[in-house]
Amino acid sequence: MTAIDLSIRAAAAEIALIGVTKSYDAKNTIIPPIDVTLRPGEFTVVLGPSGCGKSTLLQMIAGLERVSSGKIVIGGREVQDLEPKHRGCAMVFQNYALYPHMTVAENMAYSLKVAGVSKAERAERVGTVAKMLGLADYLTRKPSQLSGGQRQRVAIGRAIIREPGVLLFDEPLSNLDAQLRHDMRVELAELHRRIGATSVFVTHDQVEAMTLADRILILNKGHIEQFDTPKAIYHHPASVFVAKFIGSPPMNILEVEGDGSVLRLADGQVVANYSAKGKFQLGIRPEDIAVNEGGSIKTEIRYREDLGSHEILETKIADQNLRIAMPFGVEIDTTQTLSLSFPQARLHLFDGETGRAIANAFGDAHSAPVKEYQ
Amino acid sequence: MVENARSINIVASILLAIGILYIVGPLYLTLSTASQSYEYMLRNGLAWVPGTELFANMGKVIHDTRIPVQMLNSMIVAFSNALATCALSFLSAYAIVYFRIRWAGVAFALILATIMLPLDIRVITTYQVASNIFSPLNAVLDFTGLNSLIEMAFGSPVQLELSVLDTHFGLVAPLVAHGTGTFLFRQFFMTLPKDLFKAARMDGAGPIRFLIDILLPLARASFASLFVLTFLSGWTQYLWPLVGASTPDMQTAVVGLARLVPDADGQVPDFPMIMAGAVLVSLVPLTMIAVLQRFLVQGLVLSEK
C-alpha cells in the first residue's frame, strides 16, 4: 500500500473562462466579458475590494450562478450549462456552511452518500481525510462542538473528499482570528501541495493573496486589472489601482507633471528626470524612499507610528500625503525637516488619465528583474 | 434598583396572586361543579365544595350525549389541520426563502394578510364558498361573459355545485389557510447559514434532497411546535365549526358542549354534567400541552421574533 497521505490526490483540471459575462439586468453589469485561463494545479487567488465581482466569478465557475454569456471550460469540457455536481468542483464557504445536525463524519461523507458510494468506502475515505486534516478524534462530534479552526477543517475535508479537479474557496479564512488565519494559511498551502487540485481562492486580504498564490488575479469592478505572480504584482503593478491595493502601507501615488525633461510636483519641486510632457502619476513604495541621504525634497513629519519592526512616518509634499517606512534602528529627529530622495530605479510611472503603468519609464527598472512565472 | 427590590417583590407577588386567582378560580368552579350532582346544584346554586359525582357525571356525558362522537370529530379536525398546516407552511416557506421567484414578496405579503384577516372576519364569505366550492369559478365565468358564450353554444350556462358543509374536509380546509406557520418556518430558515443550500448543491444534492436530508431534520423542533399550536387552535375552534357543520354528528366537541345547554327557557341546565363534559374535552389538549410543552414554548418564542 502506498503512503496514506497520497491517497487523496486530484487530477488537476485546467479552467478557461472565455468571454464570460454576468449581468442581472440590462443596466447592471457585474462582470464585463472576461477571458482568463488557470493552469492545471495552479493556485490562483482572486483579489479585489468588496463588490468587485470576485465571489460572483467563483460561483459561476462552481455553477451556483448562471453565466449571462460566454463559456466556462473545465478540463476540456464546456460546463457553463451543467449542474454543480457535474463540474468536478468542490467549494469551501466563508461561514463553513456545515450541516448543523450531522456529525463531522456525516458532513464530510454527505457528497459521497448522495453520489451513492457504499458505506464501507465512505468510512474509509472519511478516515483518510480526517487523518490528513487532524480530525480523526472529532468524527462523532457535531459542528457546534468544534472550534472555528476545526469547523474550517471539516469544511475543507468535505470539499476534498471527492478528490475534485477544482477546489474553490470563498473567503474561507475571514471568520478566523489572526493567529488561526495564519496557521490555516500555512495548512492550506501544504494541503494544496499534497492534493494538487487547481485552486481558486477568493479574498480581499492581500496577505493571503501574496502568501498562497501562484498567480494573483486582481479584479476591479469586474474587469481584470492584473493577473500575475505575487512578485510581479508587487514589483510591477500594472495600474494605480493595483499599486494602491498591494503593499502595507500601500504605494504612495503623487500627481506630477512632465515638462519634457523633469517631473515636477504641483509646488515645483523636481522629483525625477523624464523626457515626456503631460500629467502623470508617480508611484513609490514607502520603504523605497531614501531619507536624509542628501535628497532635495524637503518635508516635515506630521505623525509617526512605531510598529516595532519598522516605523511609518506620515508626511506631506505639495499637499499630497506621503508615507515613509523606516527600518528598525534608524534614528530620526522628528523635529527636523527631512530631506528625501526617490531612487530612480524604484519609481513607478502611471498614465495621468488611465492610471495604467508606463513600462520601463526610467530605463530598466528595479535591481532584480522578476523572472517570468514557470 | 436593588434597594427597592423588597417592596417591588411584595407588589409583584400580590399582582401575581390576583392573576392566578382570576385564572384558577373559574377552573376550580368548573371542577367542583363537575363533581356535584344536578340536585345539589339546584338546591345550593354555585358549587364551592367538591363532591363525589365526577365520574358519574362523566359517564352521563359519555352515554347520554354526542360528545364522544364530537370529540372524534375534533380529533380529526385538529389533527388534519395541524398536519396540513405544517406541510403547507413548510413547503411555502421553503419556496419563498430558497428560490428566486418572481413576486415572492407579494406572495409572502398575501400569506401574511391571512394573519390580519382571520377566519372570524371572513366567516360569511367562507360559508358561501364552502356551501358551493365552485361559486368563485361560476362568478368568474359570469363576470367575464364566458357563460353567455357557453349558453349560446350549449343552451345553458355552466353552474357547478359542490358543497363541503357538514364534511370533515369543509371543517378543516378554511382553518388550514393561515399564514402563521409559513411565517414561523420562514423566520427559522432565515436563521440558518445562507450558504447551506449552495453547499448542498455542491455536494450534489438537488432541491428535494436538500429538503429531506438537511431542512427537514433541522426543522424538527419548529415542526413540533407548529403542530402543537395548530392542533390546539383546531381543537378549540368555535365559530367555524359552529357554522360549517349543522348536524350533531359532524359538530366538534367544543360546539357540542355549548349545545348541551337546552334552548328552552325556564329549564335550569345540567351544569354538573356540562362541566364534566368540559373537563373531558379539555383532557386531550391538556395532555398535549403536558407532553409537548417544551415545543410549545419554543414555537411561541420563534413566532415572536
What are the defining features of this structure?
heterodimer, A: 374 residues, alpha+beta, Rossmann fold, OB fold (Dihydrolipoamide Acetyltransferase, E2P), 2 domains, six-stranded mixed β-sheet, five-stranded antiparallel β-sheet, disordered N terminus, disordered C terminus, B: 305 residues, mainly alpha, MetI-like fold, 74% helix, ATP hydrolysis activity (chain A), ATP-binding (chain A), membrane (chain A)
Task: Provide structural commentary.
Chain A: Residues 15-246 form the ABC transporter domain. The complex is a heterodimer of chains A (374) and B (305). Chain A has 374 residues and is of the alpha+beta class. Chain A is built from 8 helices and 21 strands. Chain A has helices spanning 54-62, 104-114, 119-133, 148-160, 178-195, 206-212, 230-235, 240-245; strands spanning 15-23, 29-38, 43-47, 69-74, 77-78, 89-92, 166-170, 198-203, 215-220, 223-228, 252-259, 262-264, 270-273, 277-284, 290-291, 297-299, 301-306, 310-317, 320-327, 338-341, 348-351. In chain A, a hairpin with a 3-residue loop joins strand 17 (301-306) and strand 18 (310-317). In chain A, helix 2 (104-114) crosses helix 3, helix 2 (104-114) packs parallel to helix 4 (148-160) and helix 3 packs across helix 4. Chain A is elongated. Mean pLDDT of chain A is 87; it is low at 1-6 and 365-374. Chain B contains 16 helices and no strands. Helices cover 74% and strands 0% of the residues of chain B. Chain B starts with a helix and ends with a helix. With 305 residues, chain B is mainly α. The chains are: A alpha+beta (374), B mainly alpha (305).
